[in-house]
Each structure stands twice: as C-alpha cells, then as structure tokens.
Amino acid sequence: METRSQTNYEKGALYEVNIDFDEASAAWRQNKKQVSPGHFKYICTVLKKDGTQCGNSCTKDSAYCWGHRGHNKVKNPKS
C-alpha cells in the first residue's frame, strides 16, 4: 500500500484555485479595526445618517456598540 507521499500525482493540480487575497482581506477587514499588528476588534455595523459606519468598538457577543445595542438590524438610510 502506498502512502500519500509515495503516490505519484499527475502534473496538473486537482483543483484550480483562483483567490484574490487582496479582495478577501479587504472584505474580512470591513467590520474590524486594527488595534496592534495582528490584533483586531470588531466595530459597530450601524450606518449613521451621513452613510458612514459607526466605527465604535462592539460590546461583547454583539455586532453593535454600547450606544446602538438596541438595534436589531443594520439601518440603511438609502432604503
């Protein structure tokens, strides 16, 4: 019986991988702010009246800051 390291694979990859890591990183950082290298905090996801994100740190186990903790969903002024 051959182990995985002894198995000869064909020259082609098993799966084609097309990942844009810059785009993935930007999407992951959308609701976080960096507090030190490699350390992030979640930020409040509520949109303010001017259309910008609140940006305050979230309370524990919540997607909202202390001031917006009563919000059930993200408010969008354009809707």
What this model shows, in words?
It is elongated and about 60 Å long. It has a domain at 34-70. It is built from one helix and two strands; from the N terminus they run αββ. The protein is low in regular secondary structure and 79 residues long. It starts with 20 loop residues before the first helix and ends in a 37-residue tail after the last strand. The longest helix has 8 residues, at 21-28. The chain has one helix at residues 21-28; strands at 32-36, 39-42. It has a two-stranded antiparallel ribbon with strand order 1-2.
What's a concise summary of this model?
The chain is mostly loops and 79 residues long.
Helix content class: 10-25%
Number of helices: 1
The share of residues in extended strands comes to: 5-15%
Q: Give the overall silhouette.
A: elongated
Give the termini separation. Answer: 62 Å
**Average pLDDT taken over every residue:** 81
Largest sheet: 2 strands, antiparallel
**Chain oligomer state:** single chain
Class by alpha and beta content: little secondary structure
Overall strand count: 2
Rg over CA atoms, rounded to whole Å, is 21 Å
Unreliable sequence segments: none
Can you write the helix and strand succession as a string? HEE
Sequence of strands across the biggest β-sheet: 1-2
Please outline the helices and strands:
Elements: H1 21-28, E1 32-36, E2 39-42
Antiparallel strand pairs: 1-2
Jot down its keywords.
little secondary structure, 79 residues, 2 strands
